[in-house]
Amino acid sequence: MIPWRLLVELALFGLAALPLWHRQCYLLASMLMALFLLNRLALSLWGQNTV
């Protein structure tokens, strides 16, 4: 099951912290967050397929 609550919290945190980040920090954080979300999504889908 995809943790929608976690995704919503991360999205809200990203939007709230957006004005505080510099451009490079924002790019790095967005790449790391995208990798994290893709990893969670892939693991959840893989878990659903194997069960």
UniProtKB/TrEMBL annotation:
Protein name from the UniProt record: Uncharacterized protein
Keywords: Membrane, Transmembrane, Transmembrane helix
Residue spans crossing the bilayer: 27-46
Superkingdom in the source lineage: Bacteria
